[in-house]
Amino acid sequence: MKKVIFSLTLVLLCASLVWGQGSVSFAQYFEEKTLRIDFYHTGTKTEDIISLDAIYEEPIWAGSLTELIDTTNLGEHLVRVFDLATNQLIYSRGFCSLFAEWQTTDEAARDFRRTFHESVLIPYPRAPVQVVIASRDRENLFREVFTMAVDPASYHIKRIQPQQGRKATAVEQNGPPSVKYDLLFLGDGYRAEDSEKFRSDVARYVEHLFSLSPYKERRQDFNLWSVEVISAESGISQPRQGVYRDTALGCSFNAFDLPRYVLTLDNRAMRDIASIAPYDGIIILVNSERYGGGGIYRLYAISTVDHADSPHVVVHELGHALAGLGDEYYQSEVSYSEFYPLDVEPWEPNITICQERKMLKWRDLVDRLTPIPTPEKQEFVDAVGCFEGAGYSAKGLFRPAMRCIMFSKKSTAFCQVCQRAIERIIDLYSK
Ligand SMILES: [Zn+2]
Predict the structure, then answer these.
(1) Distance from the alpha carbon of residue 340 to the mean position of ligand 1, in angstroms
(2) Does residue 129 sit within a domain?
(3) Mean pLDDT for the stretch of residues 295-308
(4) Using omega within 30 degrees of 0 as the cis cutoff, is the peptide bond preceding 278 cis?
(5) Nearest CA to 128 among 60, 65, 82?
(6) Which of the pair, 273 or 16, is modelled with greater confidence?
(7) I want to staple 245 with a disulfide (CB 3.0 to 4.6 A). Which of 79, 151, 233, 379 is the partner?
(8) 401 C-alpha vs ligand 1 centroid, how far in Å?
């Protein structure tokens, strides 16, 4: 009897042996379906443990068929997939997690241990693969924390059928999912009688998003989808106010004890629902008029819909979720403890510790007459430079522009560096 279905043996693969090969043929290694690996991510500020929950086969693959290796260097984690027979790297993607975000909170610093449910989605392999998940250390180097062999023929892989009564709606379709960035809208806190409102909220935010650069110029590179998610109650939980709501996706204010931070920790519910649509990214619209939202790179963007600043929040949070942009602001109630160490270059494309023109990661966008670091003077209000104050720190961290949607809700446009970072991700999913 063949007992070894998923070998959890820690096979330490030496990544350096397999980096740097040429392009990978999708058809040789993969089928156009998704392998979803669900896991529990547990630890403290310094401890990082991943343990397997379940593996699913999902019917749709929305990602690229050509851009299989991630060269963006974005994200707190990196999933890599190796062909088991040859050790060739055949797929990789960076991503962020609620766990890594939580690790920056005071709760984690007290050596308290928590668990978050997470997923990685990879194209469905034709033959056994080795899946390796790595997290960045304090120096931002990737360290392996989990590895397992997966046999795609295993009967332990759960085969999901599209859910009864739910269907994906094409809000706007510009081509096959493999050559488009597929953006999926979900709703939380909408009852059955709020369905019309959900549809009009989606339409409203689609028009707002695609009124802004670079989205408006790249609209043809997107497909837009929605799944109507019916909640038992309207609105979402506001624990600090003693308000609790039974909603389908479990979104809540006061995430990590920050009043305006809205997250859902119910990853399994969200992934199950999303599995019926093609998606490269998810926006969760929350049926509330209170100000709030949250965004995690390659997990989701969340925003309430009926506050006067909601249009800003939707686009700002999608900046985090789609492109891994960092917060450029530094004066706020956000009280992360040393979110960015000041001696390590952040991986976020729009934040730096660098004050040297030659080393600046957006140096090609800086005019040679613009001083580095750049003083906050009216003459530089539209310039790309290196302005002190970013990433929750007034000193030691720099941002590319005085104004940007990632800096302030008074800004109505992304800076050039953020625009380019968003375009690079659109390229990664639309080729
Ligand atoms: Zn920016």
Answers:
(1) 17
(2) yes
(3) 98
(4) no
(5) 82
(6) 273
(7) 233
(8) 6
CATH number, domain with residue 131: 2.60.40.3250
State the average pLDDT over residues 260-280: 96
pLDDT at residue 341 in the model? 87
Expressed in angstroms and rounded, the spacing between residue 351 Cα and the centre of ligand 1 is 8
- 94 CA distance to ligand 1 middle (Å): 20
Ligand 1 centre from 173 Cα, in Å? 29
* CB atoms closer than 10 angstroms to residue 206: 20
CB-CB neighbours of 2 under 10 Å: 6
Q: What's the token pair of residue 134?
A: 């790595």
pLDDT value of residue 168 = 94
- CA–CA distances in Å: residue 201 to residues 176, 187, 195, 205: 25, 9, 10, 6
**What is the total count of domains within the chain?**
3
Ligand 1 midpoint to CA 161 (Å): 41
pLDDT tens string 364-390: 999 999 999 999 999 999 999 999 999
133-148 mean pLDDT: 97
Kindly give, in sequence order, each residue whose CB lies less than 8 Å from that of residue 331, ignoring residues fewer than 6 positions away: 389, 394
Task: Examine the domain organization and report whether 356 and 318 are in the same domain.
Answer: no
Does 153 have pLDDT greater than 60?
A: yes
Centroid of ligand 1 to alpha carbon of 418 (angstroms): 4
Centroid of ligand 1 to alpha carbon of 219 (angstroms):
20
Question: Same structural domain for residues 277 and 198?
Answer: yes
Q: Could you tell me if 190 and 93 lie in one domain?
A: no
- CA of residue 417 to ligand 1 center, whole Å: 6
Cα 314 to averaged position of ligand 1 atoms, centre (Å): 15
* 324 CA → ligand 1 middle, Å: 11
According to the model, what pLDDT value does residue 372 have? 96
Interval between CA 95 and ligand 1 midpoint (Å): 20
227 DSSP β-pair partners: 168, 186
Q: Are residues 19 and 112 in the same domain?
A: yes
Range(s) of the domain holding residue 60: 15-159
Report the residue count for the chain: 431
